[in-house]
Design a protein that fits this description.
Blueprint: E1 2-5, H1 27-33, H2 35-39, E2 43-46, E3 49-57, H3 64-86, H4 97-108, E4 113-116, E5 119-127, E6 130-138, H5 139-143, H6 149-169, E7 186-187, E8 193-194, E9 199-202, E10 205-208
Length: about 220
């Protein structure tokens, strides 16, 4: 099965096409033999396959299609995170720089991609309002989506340039109106500082507060 995807949780997409790939053993059988180990992590490899687990919280009144859709989107987001974590980053790239550079790489390469051999091997309503999807991809095809070190080097350079520009643009002292929120946290309606969100993790779900419901 060839699947075109866009990682909804980060609103990103990969940039290259992958060749056809087929595991020697059906993905469903591999998952069944290794179910507990697969479900214990966000991403796990077995027998030439790599599995990505998406867990979502969605109100029952919205229906199973919405719940499974969110979980499926998060499984694809796990795949995108796996690509970021396992790519060959240029020497000297820090852990803090990688996600920033990856976002810039994705922004520069927004076209969806065809992934050969992608298969949903498990969809499950684990309890009321909680949904699980397990996505399997041939590891060889998945790994083929990793960008080259040269492209990552360009992204790292762009991230560093942005960080330097932002540092130069920062005022030496925060304006009076920013008192109490100089750390960068937004102020909640009751006057208490709230943590900035963007991507966050709650109850095992990674989501993005800027996403509309229809984007899952």
């Amino acid at each position: 099965m060839a699947t075109r995807f866009r990682t909804a949780a980060a609103l990103l997409a990969a940039a290259a096409l992958v060749p056809s790939g087929q595991a020697a053993v059906p993905a469903g059988e591999v998952f069944a033999r290794n179910r507990d180990a697969v479900l214990a992590e966000d991403a796990r490899s077995f027998d030439g396959l790599v599995f990505f687990v998406g867990r979502a919280v969605s109100d029952e009144s919205r229906g199973a299609a919405v719940g499974f859709g969110k979980a499926r989107a998060l499984a694809w987001a796990r795949f995108d995170r796996w690509l970021c974590d396992t790519s060959s980053w240029p020497e000297g790239t820090t852990e803090a720089e990688r996600p920033r550079a990856w976002t810039l790489f994705r922004d520069a390469n927004p076209a969806p991609v065809t992934v050969s051999g992608a298969e949903v091997v498990r969809e499950e309503r684990t309890e009321v309002g909680r949904w699980l999807v397990v996505l399997a991809l041939p590891e060889e095809s998945a790994a083929a989506l990793r960008p080259s070190e040269d492209r990552l080097r360009e992204a790292v350079a762009a991230a560093r340039a942005r960080a330097a520009a932002a540092a130069e643009a920062e005022p030496s002292e925060p304006p009076p109106s920013a008192a109490g929120t100089a750390s960068g946290a937004e102020e909640a309606p009751d006057g208490e500082p709230a943590e900035p969100r963007g991507l966050w993790r709650e109850d095992g779900v990674t989501a993005n507060e800027t996403m509309a419901d229809g984007q899952f």
